[in-house]
Amino acid sequence: MSSAHSILVVDDELDIVLIFKRALSRQGYTVFGFTDPLLALEHFKVNSADYGLVITDVRMPRMSGFELAANIQVIKPDTKVVFMSAFEVSDFEFSIPGVKINDFLRKPVDVKTLVRRVKVAMGN
């Protein structure tokens, strides 16, 4: 797959990052995973041209997934974003100006669902 098909996975739970990375890599995607949203944002700033999709947890220490998405979409507005959470997320939380939401996954996410939804978000 081309570099524009790279996926950034951000979750403060390392197990989730590793499972998502393994599952999506098996589908041919290049996947980079981070447990720290600030490090993920720094990586994205340098490598934004490589990414077609960001999958991020909603609630993380230091920076929420919504804040991460807002920053990412300022850098590269056409970046698709899939949010995920084990918690209820209010409509208010989803109404962040300038943040385009492509999908929402409820945790726990099974691998088949993850792969199917990523393929839809990526347009393949």
As a percent range, the share of helical residues equals 40-55%
Structural classification: alpha/beta
Oligomer: single chain
Q: List unreliable stretches of 5+ residues.
A: none
Give, in spatial order, the strands making up the sheet with the most strands.
Answer: 2-1-3-4-5
Count of runs of 4 or more consecutive helical residues? 5
* CATH-derived architecture: 3-Layer(aba) Sandwich
Q: Which sheet architecture does the biggest sheet show?
A: 5 strands, parallel
Q: Please report which band the strand proportion falls in: under 5%, 5-15%, 15-25%, 25-35%, 35-45% or over 45%.
A: 15-25%
Basic shape: globular
Question: What is the total tally of β strands?
Answer: 5
Radius of gyration: 13 Å
Element order: H for helix, E for strand: EHEHEHEHEH
Please identify which CATH superfamily we are dealing with. Answer: Response regulator
CATH topology, by name, is Rossmann fold
Overall residue-averaged pLDDT value:
90
Distance between the termini: 11 Å
Question: What's the CATH C level?
Answer: Alpha Beta
What is the total number of structural domains? 1
Strands, helices and their partners?
Blueprint: E1 6-10, H1 14-25, E2 31-34, H2 37-47, E3 51-57, H3 65-75, E4 80-85, H4 91-94, E5 103-106, H5 111-122
Please give a structural write-up.
This protein has a five-stranded parallel β-sheet, sandwiched between helices. The protein has five helices and five strands, in the order E-H-E-H-E-H-E-H-E-H. The protein has 124 residues and is of the alpha/beta class. It has a single domain, classed as Rossmann fold (3-Layer(aba) Sandwich), CATH 3.40.50. Helix 1 packs across helix 5 and helix 2 runs parallel beside helix 3. Strand 4, helix 4 and strand 5 form a beta-alpha-beta unit. The chain starts with 5 loop residues before the first strand and ends with a helix.
